[in-house]
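Appendix B. Chain record.
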Amino acid sequence: MKALDTNVLVRYLTRDEPEEAARAKSLIERGPVFVAKTVILETEWVLRSAYGFAPSAIAEGIAAFLGLPGVTVEDAPAVARALMWYAQGFDFADALHVASCGQAEAFATFDRSLRRKAEAAGMMPVIAA
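C-alpha coordinates predicted for this chain:
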Protein backbone atom coordinates (compact mmCIF):
# COMPACT_ATOMS: atom_id res chain seq x y z
CA MET A 1 0.00 0.00 0.00
CA LYS A 2 1.21 3.48 -0.86
CA ALA A 3 0.17 6.65 0.94
CA LEU A 4 -0.74 9.65 -1.19
CA ASP A 5 0.38 13.23 -0.76
CA THR A 6 -2.01 16.13 -1.31
CA ASN A 7 -0.45 17.04 -4.65
CA VAL A 8 -1.16 13.55 -6.05
CA LEU A 9 -4.81 13.75 -4.98
CA VAL A 10 -5.16 17.30 -6.35
CA ARG A 11 -3.69 16.25 -9.71
CA TYR A 12 -6.04 13.27 -9.84
CA LEU A 13 -9.10 15.41 -9.06
CA THR A 14 -8.29 18.47 -11.20
CA ARG A 15 -6.38 16.89 -14.09
CA ASP A 16 -4.79 20.31 -14.59
CA GLU A 17 -1.32 18.90 -15.29
CA PRO A 18 -2.00 16.13 -17.84
CA GLU A 19 1.25 14.20 -17.34
CA GLU A 20 1.06 14.26 -13.55
CA ALA A 21 -2.69 13.56 -13.63
CA ALA A 22 -2.07 10.45 -15.73
CA ARG A 23 0.62 9.27 -13.33
CA ALA A 24 -1.66 9.92 -10.34
CA LYS A 25 -4.51 8.02 -12.01
CA SER A 26 -2.25 5.08 -12.79
CA LEU A 27 -0.92 4.95 -9.22
CA ILE A 28 -4.43 5.10 -7.74
CA GLU A 29 -5.85 2.52 -10.15
CA ARG A 30 -3.02 0.09 -9.39
CA GLY A 31 -3.81 0.51 -5.69
CA PRO A 32 -4.11 -0.05 -2.91
CA VAL A 33 -3.57 3.50 -1.66
CA PHE A 34 -3.94 5.14 1.74
CA VAL A 35 -5.01 8.74 2.33
CA ALA A 36 -4.45 10.44 5.69
CA LYS A 37 -7.27 12.69 6.84
CA THR A 38 -4.77 15.57 6.97
CA VAL A 39 -4.30 15.06 3.21
CA ILE A 40 -8.08 15.32 2.75
CA LEU A 41 -8.08 18.50 4.85
CA GLU A 42 -5.28 20.06 2.81
CA THR A 43 -6.86 18.94 -0.48
CA GLU A 44 -10.10 20.74 0.41
CA TRP A 45 -8.14 23.90 1.21
CA VAL A 46 -6.17 23.76 -2.07
CA LEU A 47 -9.25 23.10 -4.19
CA ARG A 48 -11.16 25.94 -2.52
CA SER A 49 -8.45 28.57 -2.16
CA ALA A 50 -6.16 27.95 -5.14
CA TYR A 51 -8.65 26.56 -7.66
CA GLY A 52 -11.84 28.32 -6.55
CA PHE A 53 -14.03 25.22 -6.57
CA ALA A 54 -17.38 25.41 -4.80
CA PRO A 55 -17.75 23.40 -1.60
CA SER A 56 -20.40 21.16 -3.18
CA ALA A 57 -18.05 20.23 -6.05
CA ILE A 58 -15.20 19.61 -3.61
CA ALA A 59 -17.35 17.38 -1.38
CA GLU A 60 -18.62 15.40 -4.38
CA GLY A 61 -15.14 14.97 -5.84
CA ILE A 62 -13.54 13.85 -2.60
CA ALA A 63 -16.43 11.51 -1.77
CA ALA A 64 -16.26 9.93 -5.23
CA PHE A 65 -12.49 9.47 -4.89
CA LEU A 66 -12.86 7.86 -1.46
CA GLY A 67 -15.38 5.42 -2.90
CA LEU A 68 -12.93 4.03 -5.44
CA PRO A 69 -11.78 0.42 -5.04
CA GLY A 70 -8.40 0.18 -3.37
CA VAL A 71 -8.66 3.55 -1.62
CA THR A 72 -8.41 3.52 2.18
CA VAL A 73 -8.81 6.71 4.20
CA GLU A 74 -7.71 7.28 7.76
CA ASP A 75 -10.69 7.47 10.13
CA ALA A 76 -13.20 6.97 7.31
CA PRO A 77 -16.30 7.47 9.50
CA ALA A 78 -15.06 10.88 10.69
CA VAL A 79 -14.11 11.97 7.16
CA ALA A 80 -17.54 10.88 5.89
CA ARG A 81 -19.31 12.86 8.65
CA ALA A 82 -17.13 15.90 7.94
CA LEU A 83 -17.91 15.74 4.20
CA MET A 84 -21.63 15.50 4.99
CA TRP A 85 -21.48 18.54 7.29
CA TYR A 86 -19.32 20.40 4.76
CA ALA A 87 -21.98 19.82 2.11
CA GLN A 88 -24.47 21.34 4.61
CA GLY A 89 -22.44 24.56 4.82
CA PHE A 90 -19.90 23.94 7.56
CA ASP A 91 -16.27 24.95 7.21
CA PHE A 92 -14.51 21.69 6.31
CA ALA A 93 -11.74 22.07 8.89
CA ASP A 94 -14.29 22.72 11.66
CA ALA A 95 -16.37 19.76 10.53
CA LEU A 96 -13.35 17.45 10.49
CA HIS A 97 -12.22 18.65 13.92
CA VAL A 98 -15.61 17.92 15.46
CA ALA A 99 -16.04 14.64 13.58
CA SER A 100 -12.63 13.48 14.82
CA CYS A 101 -13.32 14.00 18.53
CA GLY A 102 -13.87 10.33 19.24
CA GLN A 103 -14.75 9.75 22.88
CA ALA A 104 -14.99 13.43 23.82
CA GLU A 105 -18.26 14.54 25.37
CA ALA A 106 -18.06 18.04 23.83
CA PHE A 107 -15.96 20.26 21.57
CA ALA A 108 -14.91 23.58 23.12
CA THR A 109 -14.43 26.62 20.91
CA PHE A 110 -14.63 30.40 20.89
CA ASP A 111 -16.34 30.25 17.46
CA ARG A 112 -19.96 31.30 18.06
CA SER A 113 -21.00 30.56 14.49
CA LEU A 114 -19.72 27.00 14.77
CA ARG A 115 -21.60 26.53 18.03
CA ARG A 116 -24.89 27.72 16.48
CA LYS A 117 -24.47 25.62 13.34
CA ALA A 118 -23.45 22.54 15.34
CA GLU A 119 -26.48 22.78 17.59
CA ALA A 120 -28.82 23.18 14.61
CA ALA A 121 -27.21 20.18 12.86
CA GLY A 122 -27.36 17.94 15.92
CA MET A 123 -23.60 17.46 16.11
CA MET A 124 -21.90 16.49 19.32
CA PRO A 125 -22.16 19.34 21.81
CA VAL A 126 -20.01 22.30 20.75
CA ILE A 127 -19.60 24.55 23.75
CA ALA A 128 -18.06 27.90 24.59
CA ALA A 129 -14.47 27.62 25.76
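Further analysis of this model is presented in Appendix C.
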